[in-house]
Amino acid sequence: MLTAGDLPSGWKVMGDASDVFGPGLLQIGTTEKKPCQPLLDAFVGRSDGPKPAVHAMAELVQGGDAGSMLVNGVTSYRESDAVKIMRGTLDVDACESFSGKLGDDREARFTAERLDVPRAGDESRAVRVTVAETANEVSMQHDIAAARVGATIVTVVRTSFSTADSSSFEDALGKVVEKVKKAERAVRR
């Protein structure tokens, strides 16, 4: 899991990592536009998807309530399920703009675009989902990246009210992937 020491100064941990809630806690919202739901599931958040053997999360914040938030999930599956999740269809072209609801049922407009991140683990991919809450016209950017290391999927979601700095987001993904690789090597010994 990410720690404040893994990131540039100014970040702090919001709470302890937890495996109680499962990967669905990473899900941004829901939409009736079927091709777009996977973009809101943060790769591992599907309620009808494969069930993880183990899941843990860490939340970090930078700059207080109006700053950025970084959520790191580490989720282990059977390897075939991890591969299936990472290779699932993400139809970003069909989802440039769509409507739906946030987790608390507030109406929202979403836009999505591909996001390039350096390759990490066995395979990786990323998307950017921008959420405009309909009632308050508040806009948030969610940069979502996932990398598979064997049977484990590392997820990093950076949420910001403004355009987020992608370098610390990419560094966070790389650091967690390296931690998972190191842990797997230790288990094999």
Q: What is the element layout, followed by pairings?
A:
Elements: E1 11-13, E2 29-30, H1 37-40, E3 54-62, E4 68-76, H2 79-86, E5 97-102, E6 107-114, E7 123-133, E8 139-149, E9 152-160, H3 166-188
Antiparallel strand pairs: 1-3, 2-5, 3-4, 4-9, 5-6, 6-7, 7-8, 8-9
Descriptive tags:
single chain; 189 residues; 36% strand
How would you sum up this structure, described in words?
This protein has helices spanning 37-40, 79-86, 166-188; strands at residues 11-13, 29-30, 54-62, 68-76, 97-102, 107-114, 123-133, 139-149, 152-160. The protein contains three helices and nine strands; from the N terminus they run ββαββαβββββα. The protein has 189 residues and is α+β, with helices and mostly antiparallel strands. Strands 1-3-4-9-8-7-6-5-2 form a nine-stranded antiparallel beta sheet, sandwiched between helices. The two termini are 21 Å apart.
Can you give me a brief rundown of this structure?
This protein is α+β, with helices and mostly antiparallel strands and 189 residues long. It is 19% helix and 36% strand. Strands 1-3-4-9-8-7-6-5-2 form a 9-stranded antiparallel β-sheet, sandwiched between helices.
